[in-house]
Amino acid sequence: MGNLEKSGGSIEYEYVLPADIEKRSFEIISEEFARRGVCLDPELAPVIKRVIHTTADFDYAGSLCFSPDALERARRAIANGACIVTDTRMAQAGINKRALAKFGGEVYNFIADEDVAALARERGTTRSAVCMDKAAALRKPLIFAIGNAPTALIRLCELIREGRIRPELIIGVPVGFVNVVYAKELVMETEVPHIVARGRKGGSNVAAAICNAILYTME
Amino acid sequence: MGNLEKSGGSIEYEYVLPADIEKRSFEIISEEFARRGVCLDPELAPVIKRVIHTTADFDYAGSLCFSPDALERARRAIANGACIVTDTRMAQAGINKRALAKFGGEVYNFIADEDVAALARERGTTRSAVCMDKAAALRKPLIFAIGNAPTALIRLCELIREGRIRPELIIGVPVGFVNVVYAKELVMETEVPHIVARGRKGGSNVAAAICNAILYTME
Question: Phi, psi (5° rounding) for residue A84?
Answer without folding.
Answer: -115, 135
